[in-house]
Design goal:
34% of the residues lie in helices and 21% in strands. It has 238 residues and is an alpha/beta fold. It has an eight-stranded mixed beta sheet, with helices on both faces. Strand 1, helix 1 and strand 2 form a beta-alpha-beta unit. The relative contact order is 0.18. It holds the Pfam family Glycos_transf_2. Pathway: Carotenoid biosynthesis; staphyloxanthin biosynthesis; staphyloxanthin from farnesyl diphosphate: step 4/5.
C-alpha cells in the first residue's frame, strides 16, 4: 500500500489513575489534531481508575469509554475498536491509528509527521519518547542525554508514540490482552507479517520521568534501571 493516502485518523489514549497528568496530555492532543485536515476520532479509555481521571477526561472534547479490565492491552484494543467504528465506512487501508499515553505530551507535529511517513509508505511508525527532565536528578538527566543522539532513533517501541495503518493492525491481531508490553508484541507481529516499519525522532513525545509507573515494567522500569546504574537508591513498584 505504498504511497496510499490516509483519509482518517484514530487516536487512542488508555488511562489508569492519571488525574494529575491527563489534562496536559489531552490538551496536547487537541493541538496535534488541529494541525491535520482529515477526520479524527480520539477515544480516551478509562481503565479501572479509582481517582478522578474520568472527570478530567470529560472536560475535553473527546469520547470517554470506561472499562474495568486492569490491562493496558485491553484498553488500547477497546479504544481502537471504538475509534474505527466511529470512522466507518472509511476503509482500513486508509485509516491510521496513533497511540499515546495519559502521562505524556505529544508535540504539535505528532500526527502530521505520522501522516507524512504513512503517505511515504510506512505501515508502522515507531516514535521516540523523552522523560520529563523535571522528574530526574541532574545526573540522571545527563545520563539520558549521553545515551540518546538526536537524529538517531533507537527503534525502541513505546505505546506513548506509536502509529500503525489499520489494515496492518488488524492483520497482526491487534493489541494483546496483556498488562504491559502490548506495544512491543504488536510491533513484532507487524514486522513478522512484512510491514514496513519506520523509526523516527522527529515528533518526540514527552512522557513522565517517574520511576514507579502504572505497571511493574514499561518506561518507568527503564528509568529505574538507569537510576540504579548511577548508584542511587530507587523505589520499587508495588
Amino acid at each position: 500500500m505504498i504511497g496510499s493516502s490516509i483519509r482518517a485518523l484514530a487516536v487512542v489514549i488508555p488511562v489508569h489513575n492519571e488525574e494529575q497528568l491527563l489534562s496536559r496530555c489531552l490538551q496536547s492532543v487537541e493541538v496535534a489534531v488541529s494541525r491535520v485536515r482529515v477526520p479524527v476520532a480520539v477515544y480516551v479509555v478509562i481503565d479501572a481508575s479509582t481517582d478522578g481521571s474520568a472527570s478530567v477526561a470529560r472536560r475535553h472534547p473527546f469520547p470517554v469509554v470506561k472499562i474495568d479490565a486492569g490491562s493496558v492491552g485491553v484498553a488500547r484494543s477497546v479504544g481502537v475498536t471504538a475509534a474505527l467504528r466511529g470512522l466507518a465506512p472509511a476503509a482500513d487501508r486508509r485509516v491510521w491509528i496513533a497511540n499515546t499515553d495519559a502521562d505524556s505530551v505529544v508535540p504539535s507535529n505528532w500526527l502530521t509527521l505520522q501522516l507524512g511517513l504513512a503517505r511515504g509508505g510506512a505501515d508502522m511508525v515507531i516514535g521516540t519518547v523523552r522523560p520529563d527532565f523535571a522528574d530526574l536528578t541532574p545526573q540522571h538527566r545527563q545520563l539520558w542525554l549521553d545515551t540518546h543522539t538526536p537524529g538517531r532513533p533507537n527503534g525502541h517501541v513505546h505505546g506513548a508514540n506509536l502509529g500503525v495503518r489499520a489494515d496492518v493492525y488488524r492483520a497482526a491481531g491487534g493489541f494483546s490482552d496483556v498488562p504491559e508490553h502490548e506495544d512491543v508484541i504488536l510491533a513484532e507481529r507487524c514486522r513478522t507479517a512484512g510491514a514496513h516499519v519506520v523509526a523516527s525522532d522527529l515528533a518526540e513525545v514527552l512522557t513522565s520521568g517517574r520511576l514507579v509507573g502504572r505497571t511493574p515494567g514499561g518506561y518507568a522500569a527503564y528509568l529505574r534501571d538507569q537510576h540504579r546504574g548511577l548508584g542511587a537508591v530507587t523505589p520499587e513498584p508495588v
